[in-house]
Specification:
alpha/beta; Beta Polymerase, domain 2; Poly(a)-polymerase, middle domain; 5-stranded mixed beta sheet; two-stranded parallel sheet
């Protein structure tokens, strides 16, 4: 059996084909899991519960398709309940809904399809049910979130503004997370394949090059950086992923200067007013001499994907990024500024 070649040994003209061959997730596996989840949700859950399921959305790796081929496929299910008329009713009823849903799935007759994981106390605290589902003789880990539908299928700007206003105001933000995750899925699914390929390439770079001693960067770390840098390059529909990789690695090699914000972005979901407030927070810190890396999220205004990353980890990222820019794939791109080469 021949060894899989490394992306860093490819030429910049071959890297896009390399990603499609070796890094993109297996679509057949995803399709099999989709079928199994349809069977579970439609055949065994929808008619067995006392509440009304208005719609179901996939999440996790199954929906986003930006996990590496060699990594395990996971999933999330957002079960939107038509009986819940708002956040207050969600909070009043969600514990009973979780218990009812778990009891339906934890049926001995369904053990060949689904296994419920974890304790009731943990389930209620987290607002979700951990499950394993089988598809084509393989088991997949996932989470199921029964939840209020805050946005509907195609939310208007007014609906988004109302939801974000309440999200910003409420101390308990757990009820909003399924809606925010669906918005993020919509964003990822709207991206050109090249952007998704660049994200895969950065995730492979982290996995194969960085030595972070068991630490893992935040889930959206590379995704958010890639999206914003792609926007700043003019949002080309097709581009050379080697050029995009060089751009991102060059950015993180000077990590204290990283400032990913969304006030001018077309991919921001919250209002410009909120984005401008976040930018003023950065400016105030800089004036006080507190310059640090900032990577805000285009969907969740309360997320900063640099939070919890220590300077020692940043230094390791920067050193490895600078070394990688000297490898065959990237060294020839140092004088090239455009992504469309």
């Amino acid at each position: 059996m021949s060894e899989v070649p490394l992306p860093w040994d490819q030429s910049d003209t071959d890297i896009n084909d390399y990603i499609s061959t070796y890094l993109r997730p297996d679509e057949d596996v995803a399709r099999n899991l989709d079928v199994a989840l349809d069977n579970l949700m439609i055949t065994h859950l929808r008619d067995a519960v006392t509440y009304t399921i208005s719609r179901i959305r996939r999440g996790g790796g199954l929906a986003q398709r930006i996990h590496l081929k060699e990594d395990e496929l996971d999933f999330e299910l957002y079960v939107f309940i038509g009986d819940l008329r708002g956040i207050d009713e969600h909070r009043q009823r969600i514990d009973k809904i979780l218990i009812e849903t778990r009891d339906v799935l934890d049926n001995p007759d369904l053990m060949h399809l689904v296994m419920v994981r974890g304790e009731e106390k943990e389930m209620i605290k987290e607002g979700r049910i951990s499950i394993r589902v089988t598809a084509d003789d393989e088991w997949f880990e996932g989470k199921l979130y029964p939840t209020v539908d805050l946005l509907g299928v195609k939310p208007s700007n007014a609906t988004l503004e109302i939801m974000y206003r309440q999200y910003t105001r409420d101390a308990d933000k757990a009820c909003f997370l399924p809606a925010l995750r669906v918005l993020y899925i919509n964003l990822i699914q709207s991206l050109p394949q090249n952007v998704r390929d660049l994200i895969l390439l950065l995730k492979y770079w982290e996995k194969s090059k960085l030595q972070l001693r068991g630490r893992k960067l935040p889930d959206r770390f590379w995704e958010v950086i890639c999206i914003r840098r792609w926007e700043m390059a003019g949002s080309p529909k097709t581009f050379n992923c080697a050029r995009g990789l060089f751009d991102v690695l060059e950015l993180v090699s000077d990590w204290r200067a990283i400032m990913i914000t969304w006030e001018t972005s077309e991919h921001r979901f919250y209002s410009k007013k909120i984005a401008d407030e976040k930018r003023r927070e950065i400016d105030n810190r800089n004036r006080k001499g507190e310059q640090v890396a900032v990577i805000y999220d285009p969907v969740d205004p309360h997320l900063d994907h640099t939070r919890g990353i220590r300077s020692l980890v940043w230094d390791e990222i920067a050193r490895t990024a600078m070394d990688s820019c000297e490898e065959k794939l990237l060294k020839v791109l140092k004088k090239t500024k455009t992504w469309t080469i």
